[in-house]
Amino acid sequence: MQRLASGPLGAVTSRARADFVGELTAMLPPEGVVTRPEALEGFQRDQTHVLGAGKPLAAALPRTAAEVSAALVLASKYRIPVVPRGAGSGLAGGANAVDGCLTLSMLRMDRIVEISTDDLVAVVQPGVMNATLAAEVAGQGLLYAPDPSSLEISSIGGNLATNAGGLRCVKYGVTRESTLGLEVVLADGTILRTGRRTVKGVAGFDLVGLFVGSEGTLGVITEATLRLRPAPPPAGTLLASFAGLADAAEAVAGMRGVSASVIELMDQTTIRAVEDWQRLGLDTSSAAILIVRSDGADFGRVELDVVELACQSSRATGILRSTDALESEGLMGARRAAFPALERLGITLLEDVAVPRGRIVELVAAVERIADEHQVQIGTFGHVGDGNLHPTLIIPRGDEAARGRALEAADAILAITLSLGGTISGEHGIGALKRERLADELGPEGIRVSWAIKNALDPLGIMNPGKVLPS
Amino acid sequence: MQRLASGPLGAVTSRARADFVGELTAMLPPEGVVTRPEALEGFQRDQTHVLGAGKPLAAALPRTAAEVSAALVLASKYRIPVVPRGAGSGLAGGANAVDGCLTLSMLRMDRIVEISTDDLVAVVQPGVMNATLAAEVAGQGLLYAPDPSSLEISSIGGNLATNAGGLRCVKYGVTRESTLGLEVVLADGTILRTGRRTVKGVAGFDLVGLFVGSEGTLGVITEATLRLRPAPPPAGTLLASFAGLADAAEAVAGMRGVSASVIELMDQTTIRAVEDWQRLGLDTSSAAILIVRSDGADFGRVELDVVELACQSSRATGILRSTDALESEGLMGARRAAFPALERLGITLLEDVAVPRGRIVELVAAVERIADEHQVQIGTFGHVGDGNLHPTLIIPRGDEAARGRALEAADAILAITLSLGGTISGEHGIGALKRERLADELGPEGIRVSWAIKNALDPLGIMNPGKVLPS
After folding, report:
1. How far is B241 from chain A, CA to nearest CA, in Å?
2. CATH code, residues B236-419
3. Are B179 and B208 in contact (CB under 8 A)?
4. How many other CB atoms are found less than 10 A from the CB of residue B14?
5. ipTM of the complex
């Protein structure tokens, strides 16, 4: 179980690179290969503003699993690193290029192959955007549950690569829980079909679970069989304001018996950023807002009664509640505006930590303390029902000192999260951003076992080198 | 990616075996090692009546992960095959001994380490019985969701090894969905802690998912952090009778919009076996019974209204419905009696196939046809809401010809299941029973990748050889 695969680039000669590009160009149709340096800039990075990125040697835009396989056979032959790429909306640098790589953009594999209302499954290619699939199945009275906030700009392939979460996963689970089967192309070009079309199944190891969330380091997903659900009844929505963050956290604990479909938190920094931008009439003197939805029968009236009581008992200073679809969306709008509102304040570093449910108050208090100590503005919002929060560090543009303080503060947030029994990534992934922190969470044994699996599936180490696993 | 690990026994000399037993005996306390042949008989097999089993060289009953680790280091040194064992209630021979093995009984590691009502997790050792944990958390107003029918006689370790399902998993998911973190001892003695205590988390590969359901072929689970839920409200229960199996299947399709907590089917053979035994007053002229529960608010009244309507529209011949706890349990009792009732008729071979939801009618019809063609009595019952059924083949005691016909019929059921896009095991596992059928479902690539992972984690091939992966 050694770390064999640490990035193969050193061994690649410029002659080999030229031969690789020549063969790739001969193999794929003209629109399937990009080699012009200016055009390659669009394939260089994702949305992680604080990270650098390398320069790709070429980008391929395959149309079929067979083309992906052929490209990987060629990359194996010439030891060219391969960086798979969805829509580039990632927040951990998972799709960032390394110098001399082949970037494999999956966006042209964008077909919804099948939606089965009988079997409650969708079969989709990785380049389908989450919102496109969601709308398509909604039109048939069905629900694709995973709803990352990025759903308009993120692809199913990227969602699978990071095991994306979202607002609704407090009730319906993350992307993994909606993934039944996969087609994956391995580093050596093998096309593997794994998993199933049934809800349950225990025939052999859970390879689907292994590939989901592996961020392109074990193979390239070329098709997925996804679980659908009947569309739930229309949801009711409640927005509650609190004078203290601890009050809001107490309210969340009090609504634990409710199977709410959304339980989201916004802190004062976030509330003010949203209000400054959108003028929604939020009470900017509040320390925190909770937004809770229930899609139980009858607009979740019974469930929202319990939620309202929990908020009242926890000294909510204001409660709005609606079952009207438009009003309900209006209340959700405040939460949806959170990250773009914070982005208006400067360069953002969006953290993605999760703690056990009982440690939320401690996490939130620690983030406030870290913001003070490091003199960094931090807006915190996120999926408080799951213990998964996004403290968002604001770096004024051009302020290098502030950038350094923010990076230190982010590290401090990861450290405190681990000390609370939490994880350094709830739903965004490790990518290039946090790989040197991964051992802090997994321990040496976890890293060793992960490398053993990586080496077994990608012995040449060409798949997304420099991501997830530390060198 | 070759099949390195195909069973190391051939290379073990009788001298090595004696040295192994000597060192093991010296290492563990007297009550922790069993070597007397008569006493070892109790460690030979599980509940799979149609399978043979080998003779263990010794059994160890460790108390700690450190003892498990030491035993595995010793087994690695002498290349002794290791068969981990829970409560021996398995139905695929996963815990059956191979000749000359060390059987590792986990039943003395039976502590509930922690139940946290704040974090909604339980930390347990593998020897805790499912029903013990369920009762313990129920006493604190919480729910451990996975409820295999074997819950009184199966251990959490065995449930994890097979990724056990159960009646409630139609609403709450299988064991995997309730497993957050694991401590696992690997073949070389490494003690790995993997996963987390948070609901969400994407830091590194999903090793928890890989070990859950791997049936002791990748390591020995010594502790698990399990997800708990608030106890749901009391359930209402409905029992509906149908004159035709297709009617019952149509009713199931009609209740798809309902988040029922149980949707179970029994066919006529099963109904009659239960009624002959228990005299519950079931209508033995019915072709099928459905038992449906809802634990939504107010005894799931709204949900059960929809269920009742679906049954009526599908020509149910009788409907009973209750919100009284005792009556409700009475209705469930018919389903709980299904397997023991069928066991009274002869030796049973309990199948465990699952098909996509839309293919249930075809599966049930095919099983009836196969019963006729092979002249085998088959009682079918199971988790119809998940597409997971247990056609149970009855072999009259001492009838060798019938045994042969039953094994052929079982093969035919697996074949038709695969042709319907299903899986050969929904929740019981592959074990020794179905390993030579696994390639039919996984394909050569799936088998090759599985062996690559197996060899990476267990290079000497000592962990539960002859199980799951075909030779």
Report:
1. 23
2. 3.40.462.10
3. yes
4. 8
5. 0.96
Q: How far is CA A326 from CA A9, A300, B420, in A?
A: 54, 16, 43
**Which DSSP string do the residues of B396-440 spell out, in sequence order?**
-TT-HHHHHHHHHHHHHHHHHHHHTT-BS-SSS--TTTSGGGHHH
> Residue ranges of the alpha helices (H) in B289-324?
297-313
Q: What is the mean pLDDT of chain A?
A: 95
Give me A228's structure tokens.
């659908």
The residue written with tokens 């088959």 in the block is B378
Q: Which of A116, A201, A256 sits opposite B426 (nearest CB)?
A: A201
| Cβ pair A210:B212 closer than 8 A | no
3-state secondary structure A396-456: CCCCHHHHHHHHHHHHHHHHHHHHCCCECCCCCCCCCCCHHHHHHHHHHHHHHHHHHHHHH
d(CA B352, CA B426): 6
Separation in Å, CA A161 to CA A66, A351, A379, B142, B160? 20, 18, 27, 33, 25
The predicted-structure confidence for B202-227, as pLDDT tens digits, reads as follows 999 999 999 999 999 999 999 999 99
Q: Which residue has the tokens 């059924």?
A: B389
Pair B98, B83: CB distance under 8 Å = yes
Please give the single-letter amino acid code of residue B120: L
How close are the terminal C-alpha atoms of chain A, in Å?
14
Please determine, looking at this structure, whether the domain spanning A112-230 carries the CATH number 3.40.50.1000: no
Q: How large is the average pLDDT for residues A256-276?
A: 95
Chain B residue whose CA is closest to A198 = B356
- SS3 per-residue string spanning A253-290: HHCCCCCCCEEEEEEHHHHHHHHHHHCCCCCCCCCEEE
B24-66 tens-digit pLDDT: 999 999 999 999 999 999 999 999 988 999 999 999 999 999 9
Nearest Cα of chain B lies from the Cα of A89 at a distance, in angstroms, of 17
Pairs of CB atoms within 8 A across A/B: 260
- The owner of tokens 């509930």 is B112
Q: How many residues does chain A have?
A: 471
Answer yes or no: do B120 and A174 touch at CB < 8 A. no
| Separation in Å, CA of B244 to nearest CA in chain A | 20
With beta carbons under 8 A apart, name residues in chain B contacting A422. 196-198
pLDDT over 90 (residue B378) = yes
Structure tokens at B231: 């106890």
CA–CA separation, A263 and A168 (whole Å): 8
Contacts of A48 (CB under 8 A, 6+ apart): A90, A91, A92, A93, A96, A431, A432, A433
- Strand segments, DSSP code E, in A89-227 are 102-105, 112-116, 121-124, 142-143, 179-185, 191-195, 220-227
Burial A167-189 (b: 16+ CB within 10 A, else e): bbbbbbbbbbbbbbbbbbbbbbb
The string of DSSP letters for A33-90 reads: EE--HHHHGGGS--S-TT------SEEE--SSHHHHHHHHHHHHHHT--EEEESSS--
Domain boundaries, chain B: 112-230, 236-419
